[in-house]
């Protein structure tokens, strides 16, 4: 894979790891203290475990993409990334109303939706550059 392919995987992986960690910290801060961007929605609520699991899973996906970019880039990782970002983007769009009802600012979801779309386009661009050997 080319240099841009590896850079895309590394940057995307770092983004997902960062977002996963920040979200877990925010969820637990809100759950335990009632402060922070998700404080009111998370304080003492039983559904915090689901939010934390989802955020940790996003971080794991990011670690996979980061590792692929650093050690084992192949076109399949770009397919995986497109599917992961399409799933995350659809969840962000689908749960916008519920997020607002929990009292969480939805402007963050708007930014994340745009970033997911940008990463999808970057990975699709990399897939158009894949050269496969044609048997003679």
**What's the β-strand tally?**
0
Q: Supply the helix-strand structural class.
A: mainly alpha
Strand content: under 5%
Topology order in helix (H) and strand (E) letters: HHHHHH
Q: Strand count, sense and closure of the main sheet?
A: none
- The radius of gyration is 17 Å
Low-pLDDT residue spans: none
Helix content: over 70%
Number of domains: 1
State the separation between the terminal residues, measured CA to CA.
Answer: 22 Å
Total count of helical runs of at least 4 residues: 6
Shape verdict = elongated
Average predicted local confidence, pLDDT: 89
Q: How would you characterize the overall build of this protein?
A:
This protein is mostly helical and 136 residues long. The chain has one domain (3-128). Helices cover 79% and strands 0% of the residues. It contains 6 helices and no strands. Helix 1 runs antiparallel to helix 3 (48-71), helix 1 runs antiparallel to helix 6 (107-128) and helix 4 packs antiparallel against helix 6 (107-128). The longest helix is centred in the first third of the chain and has 31 residues, at 3-33. The protein starts with a helix and ends in an 8-residue tail after the last helix.
What features would you highlight for this structure?
136 residues; single chain; mainly alpha; 79% helix
How are the elements arranged and paired?
Elements: H1 3-33, H2 39-42, H3 48-71, H4 75-94, H5 96-101, H6 107-128
Short description:
By secondary structure, this protein is mostly helical. The protein has six helices and no strands.
